[in-house]
């Protein structure tokens, strides 16, 4: 498995060392972010937490989404989503849009 962010931004095949907890994309050491969340569990009428925080690996994009901090511009290099074909200027739909109607 290769790092998705390296492939999306540079087109290189850098080996991944981890998988993002949020989006499951492969991550190289340069693109992973380690967080240490404290896990809470119900305990009677209150809430208890363990003495050791958990380990959570995230990509730059998922880390930015969870913390509210904007991701660096280099991390936002997702491929553009293709446009959905719709009616043309005359309002007619093309034959390629719905082969069953052709």
Helices and strands in order:
Layout: H1 4-10, E1 18-19, E2 26-27, E3 32-35, E4 40-43, E5 46-49, E6 56-59, H2 60-67
Antiparallel strand pairs: 1-2, 3-6, 4-5
Could you say which overall geometry the principal axes of the C-alpha atoms support?
elongated
Helix content: 10-25%
What is the strand content? 15-25%
Q: What do the pLDDT scores average to?
A: 75
- Poorly predicted runs are 79-83
Structural class by SSE content: alpha+beta
Oligomer: single chain
The succession of helices and strands, N to C, reads HEEEEEEH
Biggest sheet overview? 2 strands, antiparallel
Q: What strand line-up does the widest sheet have?
A: 1-2
Distance between the termini: 42 Å
Instruction: Report the count of strand segments.
Output: 6
């Amino acid at each position: 498995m290769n790092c998705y962010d390296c492939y999306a931004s540079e087109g290189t095949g850098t080996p991944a060392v981890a998988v993002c907890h949020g989006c499951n994309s492969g991550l190289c050491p340069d693109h992973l972010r380690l967080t240490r969340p404290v896990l809470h569990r119900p305990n009677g009428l209150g809430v208890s937490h363990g003495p050791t925080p958990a380990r959570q690996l995230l990509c730059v994009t998922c880390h930015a989404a969870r913390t509210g901090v904007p991701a660096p511009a280099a991390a936002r290099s997702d491929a553009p989503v293709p446009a959905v074909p719709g009616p043309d200027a005359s309002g007619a739909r093309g034959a390629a849009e719905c082969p069953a109607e052709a």
